## 1
Amino acid sequence: MAMQKRPCLIDTDGGVDDALALLFAQHSPELDVIGVTTVAGNTDVHQATENVLRVLELDGAAHVPVAMGYAAPLEGHLERVTSIHGVDGLGELHRFKHETGESRYAPPTYKPVDTHAVDLIIESAKKYSENLSIVTLGPLTNLAEACRKAPEALRKVDRVVTMGGAFAVPGNMTPVAEFNIFADPEAAQIVLHSVLPITLVGLDVTLDVILERGIIEAGHAHIRSAKSQLIADCTELYANFYKEADDIHGFYLHDPLAVGVAIDPSFVKMSHYHVTVECRGQYTRGFTVADRRKRRRVFGQPPNCHVAESVDEDRFVRFFIDHLWPGLN
Ligand code: RIB
Ligand code: CA
């Protein structure tokens, strides 16, 4: 019997691992990507939108509605790290040329819809209701505003899987804060104290999931498609950053693992905790504070989300490779 595809909306800040996550979701028989919304984070929201349009068009998916969202966090200003994803968010794709000297990556012809990201989220929640999964791969600005604007519509959503947070491990943006939460802690606080059923896929698990650069090169040699070429090109600088920063021979599959958990939650082991976000700390802004005490059931607040604490990394990486480079494993 054919597998029933589940409707899935992806909210993304248009970076390199976001692009891999989007391609992964597009090539998963389990998910039907019914919309993509963009938010400022790894790059500015206009560039993030162009990146999503480019990836979808190149992958033959220039039919999925793409709606642009917020250009800045709810409070404060956006702090970007262009050294990880490149100024364009996709590893400085302008560097790659054909033999003729023209750019390998022309601007996409595919255009976004006129709808704001927040309204596409709300419309999708109303249309797909308890069948809808929302996967967030960047700061939670759009989702927070959707919760404020239409809480009743969002109440019906089946689940939200969010790449974000750091619970028993250090942060990556600061010693305690993970980037997606750090970039808009007020939005994360709104989402965590909303009616949404949240699963947080944080650094506790994503730092255990590394894709080796050699797999990408072998995948491109195996398939030789525009998609495999894009993956090889956009991950070059990204892998170089992590070699220098963390001395690893590849990079973390932060966002793809969030998609993986939306497909099959059994890739991770989760616990039900109360999580709140530090929004004022001079050194701890963006810190996701989970009450993991044994006595939390007596003295703590009721749990408000599930937190992924361990991952079956070998099984997930094989699953990811099978979807992006079929036949390579
Ligand atoms: O901390 C990792 C997260 O921040 C990922 O979503 C990555 O794309 C960046 O947005
Ligand atoms: Ca991201």
## 2
Amino acid sequence: MYFIGNWKMFGGLNSLNSLHRVIKFYKGFKRNRLVKIIYCPPSTLIRPMSKKLKNSRIEVGAQNCHENENYGAFTGSINSKMLKDVGAKHVIIGHSENRQRGESNKKINNKIRSALKSGLKVVFCIGETSQEKRKKKTYQVLSNQIKTGLDKVKNTRNIIIAYEPVWSIGTGLIPKSNELIKIIHFIKKKYKNLKVLYGGSVNPKNIRELKSINNIDGFLIGGASQDAKKFIDIIKKTYN
Ligand code: 13P
């Protein structure tokens, strides 16, 4: 099971102090062979975090990248090769917070292909808005996002899908279990070997309900991942 922490635009160097707690927990956790932890901090923390996590088997990822795999005159941007250079092994692409700021499926596709070329593993986010859900367009939206996002991607071995309904991010709302099972099944039917994570308001309170969904391969965790105790609690409760 994957437990991926997305810190979003939170945290400075002092936030790394809380990691020792997670490192210690992970080392001593009996089921740790079943657990893969990945932290995706802001880009400014990738390097120092990688150093802190050295030898811990906890990996580091970025939250986005530019679609151009070469260096170029793109002020303020960072590409996948630069992320890899400072220690990232993964990158989140297609997060709804970036889609809402104008990132298209086509652009996401370019980013995914560029990241894979640079040797990063991709956490590819998809999800419908509340309006799309109300209009019963969920499956159509997810289909489009996946189809265009993975266009010309021949090998999906290094891709994980994170299903994050936009209406559940940061709201405390989660989908009904039977809906989630169906949606994950739908995604997996399209791409046989893809792992599918769930993201959106995952916390120590709702994890028992979420973990009972047996086709989920893990969780993409926002707010709760910034709190070491909550993050550890989520992992512990997934296994008992
Ligand atoms: P929350 O867990 O804070 O709802 O955020 C989810 C998310 O967007 C992770 O990428």
